[in-house]
Write a structure and sequence with these properties.
2 copies of one chain form a homodimer. By secondary structure, chain A is an alpha/beta fold. Helix content of chain A is about 40%, strand content about 15%. In chain A, the strands form 5 sheets. In chain A, strands 10-9-11-12-14-13 form a 6-stranded parallel sheet, sandwiched between helices. In chain A, α1 packs across α2, α1 runs antiparallel to α10 and α15 runs parallel beside α16.
Chain lengths: ~650, ~650
């Protein structure tokens, strides 16, 4: 047997051994995809275990993340910070080899995958990011960026809507640095794809601006796999390679959904090993010649890396200014936030979305890593900056994402892994279209900024389809995500300071459509505390966010006329408040004072802080914004009455 | 001018008058789409203002819901429960004419639309439903169902991922009763679609199993519009008619995004009226001959309806058994829930997803309206019933939705409007892929049942990408949605009773992957109360849901060994508990007893009921389910220790 086939069989057997040992996992994909990923990793994928942070490293994304036993096997054979012990601990608590790939640069895993389609959209993001870096930094005599983005995916990924959104945009942008290997095995969990998925994939993606190539026998025809990936190197469009494989190849469950998600079984493993001339009594076995083969590949890759390093040394010397800018990308460093505007209570009333727009305008030239976009709501979200990034100018810094919220957020996740700080905009209510990718950002600790405008029933006439009720609660319930709802200019500035400097989590910035007054007591430097006292009070403390802070101040004034001592707390970010010291929290929200929350949205999360919660737990209504606000009880008088009623009964 | 052109101009002018009068709205679409919707409503759409509940009525869905001024104008001219006063109150609070169409059968509005793509998927659902009804009830000598589903949409709808999912399934299922009119105006909010949306639409949808027809001049060529809709009547596939129009047609802002979302302005309206030979000083004007023309159309439609009624009378007499079954669909009546299984604490431990599967198996033959499906997780969600619905057997009652969660939920919304009770399954964590459609179900009061399995970190090895943390909080934060998390067999049965009989809202049924014991104190008849006492206690009350109820009982036993009197409350549905009387709620959760919640998910929403909340506010981890549960503190010992610590400090 040739060393290539033997290596592929080693990968197959190693993967099923891992899954059998874990008694859990997905053997079908590794058995079918070992040939294509062996060819990709051996002959094409550019990486070096001498520098995991190599900026021109190729990217590989396992969008069909359930097949990660194969990825871990490859990382082990390529000696990429993966040990035999890791493989034996597959899917065990605290192991380095979890059930789906979790972001871990050490193991070449740039993005967490598993939920289908995310990885493809992440890949589109990386392809955009590297197109931008290439155009900005490459020189005629010195090409430092020429890497490719490879994604592997299955039928499931292609059925997801997010994939269509992402691939449509990739086709439009002519991202020819993006190559998708599609494991076309015709089987999904419910059975044959004939049950539900009978698109003409070839024609469809051609119509969407992709080059579509086909490998008829992805189980055995290594030459064809190699040729097609080779052709893809010089495409003028993104490339989808349809590789026909057999799920669970080489076992009694091949070509059946039964091989997808449960260990293949001892008997099948014995037969597989026998058929491959492996000793069936030995698990986790790497033949000596296979080991040598991979070591040679590693040496070649490291040699190639060294060559690039020479180029980069030349770049450093010859293009020092560009190099210094590039360093910001590499080190994720922000020059300065001094250019953010300043606001005082003397400034005119403005919608916080407008203030956000001013912030972006003033800082974007100072932060080259900033790259923005909106899902076709640029004028409404006030997100527009700089030049547009398009296929005729990849160096632009504004992306027209189209009406593609889910892909937009997942693309931003990919972009964020390439040294950029991406922000994206849509209406707050439409987080329901993209929360899957927002969750992945939080889970993967990507720095992505969501600019979410039209933040309450106060948006008015567009009605309940567009009026958020539950949105803030949804965002606050997601771990490792900061949700900001600033009240005025000062708090918007403080919010941007936090969002731009918080590197290990995404931030959602919630902004009003309607104008809000600039307040006296707010303080941009206090946003970092999450919540802070605007005015102290002895009897009652009103806690409010965003547009309701000015309302709370007015309610406070009215209540004080009746002789009560009323405090006001602005809570722009509950998550930051939660991590303050017990002393600080009890100073802002003393235990023995009645606390009342006021926010024009679901009350569900506010009982954590307040004894009485004023909010909206039904859907909104179409009408003039002020009238709608009043109808749902958000007027000084109605809130005051509610509070008086509440006090009377305690 | 011909009466047709005059009628179309009347619609255009009426729509912009409404928007100008409201000083808010979207004139671009009505100006461009009046011709196509006039032709559709006049020459094709089958309806009768004599019976809004006509079961063979054609369906029309405005997926580009922002263009609703045009729909309201059409309803007015067709005298379909729409008054001139309604038009004048467009977008005003409590009006009959909100800013986006809101479900209202009285006005032929079967589904709420606005968030893009939803309407198309709703249409796919209706097309499936009527294919099913046709195959089940039509007879060779008596066709009672032959209606069509028409959807209008714009570029925005086609960019959304949900649309691709829905249209892919529609193509697979060969739903030739579905016709989409695509307002191909090449403009979105950010500007020309050249900015971001350059697919070859014709080829793409052909590749997805659609017939694609083209109208080159949708502004003027009424004959072509008519011909293409006519051709679509006899297609063997679903039909997409690309109708090239000009947004904002006839105004100075035509062919510009500026005409999309703000009133067109007085000057433009005057010019438009002058150009159409309308008096520019009169608003809301209907020429007499136009009124007569529409009255003639109404008469014709009512005559056609009467003819169908004769057919239906014959059906009633000749096919009484089928008629009686059909009556259940028409009246939304459930025969009996007696066939649900019964469970006792003597039964073996089972995963609640398995119990759910048994419930579905036992009731589906008794409830013909039940129609199920899963997003490619049928064996994991235990959702499979009866025969598969596919293009070779539309009478089946199980749909393989493919990996298309968002479309699945929106399709279910459409199905629910045709007399069916649809249920759909996926993993709980993947509500992040479909919450947009779940929100629409809640807003529109559709009866849809979500079967959401693998409900906590207890699912184990698949890891944090698959382990819900925030999901229950998300569902509970959405108004008008019931979220059930039953603890055992009895509670699953009680949950199905509630979900099947609650007609005006969707229900989410949250189920475990892992086995759970059958409990002594649970009671299926108490699920309707939302929360109830399993055991009374004087010192502490533990509140738990689902898999944590048995845990809470064991913790209670341990704490009582130390001399505490500890109660246990099962809370399968917070939303139902919330609407109980104050007395009942204080009986279950007395004010003066310490209350502690235990749920393996976000604690955010639990402060509403508990003084101390035990949950998980970080992401989970890949590993054996029991080990993961223990690691995150969900063991009797760890919870007991936490509670003891909490008590010590209060």
């Amino acid at each position: 047997m040739e060393i290539k086939e033997k290596s592929i069989n080693t990968l197959r057997i190693l993967s099923v051994d891992m899954i059998q040992n874990a008694n859990s996992g997905h053997p079908g994909m590794p058995l079918g995809c070992s040939p294509m990923l062996y060819i990709l990793f051996s002959n094409f994928l550019k990486f070096s275990n001498n520098n995991i942070n190599w900026i021109n490293r190729d990217r590989f994304i396992l969008s069909n993340g359930h097949g990660c036993a194969l990825l871990y096997s490859l990382l082990y054979l390529f000696n990429y910070n993966m040990t035999m012990n890791d493989l034996k601990n597959f899917r065990k608590l605290h192991s380095n080899t979890p059930g789906h790939p979790e972001k871990n640069i050490k193991n070449m895993i740039d993005v967490t995958t598993g939920p289908l389609g995310q990885g493809i959209a992440n890949g589109v993001g990386m392809a955009i990011a590297y197109k931008n870096l290439s155009e900005k930094f490459n020189k005629n005599d010195c090409v430092i960026f020429n890497n490719k983005i490879y994604v592997s995916c299955g039928d499931g990924c292609l059925m997801e809507g997010i994939t269509n959104e992402a691939m449509s945009l990739a086709g439009h942008l002519k991202l020819n640095n993006l190559i998708i290997l599609y494991d076309d095995n015709k089987i999904s969990i419910d059975g044959s794809t004939d049950l539900t998925f009978t698109e003409n994939t070839f024609d469809k993606y051609n119509a969407m601006g992709w080059n579509v190539l086909v490998v008829e026998d992805g189980n055995n025809d290594l030459v064809s796999i190699n040729n097609k990936i080779n052709i893809a190197q010089n495409s003028n469009k993104p490339v989808l390679i349809m590789i026909r494989t057999t799920i669970g190849y080489g076992t009694s469950k091949e070509n059946s959904e039964k091989s997808h998600g449960t260990p293949i079984g001892e008997e099948d493993i014995i037969n597989l090993k026998l058929n491959c001339n492996f000793d069936p009594t030995i698990d986790f076995y790497i033949p000596y010649d296979v080991m040598v083969h991979f070591n040679n590949l590693i040496s070649q890759k490291n040699y190639n890396y060294t060559e690039w390093c020479n180029t980069f040394e030349y770049y450093k010397k010859s293009y020092i200014e560009d190099y210094n800018i590039l360093k910001n990308f590499i080190t994720n460093k922000i020059n300065s936030l001094n250019s953010l505007p300043t606001f005082t209570d003397n400034d005119k009333s403005m919608a916080t979305r407008e203030i956000s727009g001013l912030c972006l305008q003033s800082i974007h030239t100072h932060i080259p890593q900033l790259i923005g976009g909106s899902a076709d709501l640029s004028p409404s979200n006030n997100t527009k900056i700089g030049n547009v990034l398009d296929f005729n100018n990849y160096s632009g810094k504004y992306i027209h994402y189209g009406v593609r919220e889910h892909a937009m957020c997942a693309i931003a996740n990919g972009i964020s892994t390439c040294g950029f700080i991406p922000y994206v905009g849509t209406f707050l209510v439409f987080i329901t279209y993209c929360i899957g990718a927002i969750r992945m950002a939080a889970l993967s600790k990507h720095q992505v900024i969501y600019i979410l405008t039209h933040d309450s029933i106060g948006l008015g006439e567009d009605g309940p389809t567009h009026q958020p009720i539950e949105s803030l609660t949804i965002l606050r319930s997601i771990p490792n995500l900061l949700t900001f709802r600033p009240a005025d200019g000062k708090e918007v500035v403080g919010t941007y300071e936090q969002a731009l400097t918080t590197k290990d989590k995404p931030s959602a910035i919630i902004l009003s459509r309607q104008k809000l007054p600039q307040l006296v007591f707010t303080n941009s430097n206090m946003v970092c505390m999450g919540g802070y006292t605007l005015k102290k009070g002895e009897n009652i403390i009103l806690i409010a966010t965003g547009s309701e802070v000015s309302l709370a101040i007015n309610v406070m004034k009215e209540l004080e006329k009746d002789g009560l001592s009323v405090g006001v707390v602005s809570m722009p970010c509950c998550e930051l408040f939660d991590i303050q010291s017990k002393e600080y929290k009890e100073q802002v929200l003393p235990l023995n004072i009645i606390k009342i929350s006021i926010e024009a949205g679901s009350t569900l999360g506010w009982y954590k802080y307040a004894n009485y919660c004023i909010g909206i737990d039904t859907f909104g209504s179409s009408g003039d914004g002020d009238e709608v606000m009043d109808y749902f009880g958000f007027s000084v008088k109605k809130i005051k009455d509610k509070i008086n009623l509440f006090i009377k009964f305690i």
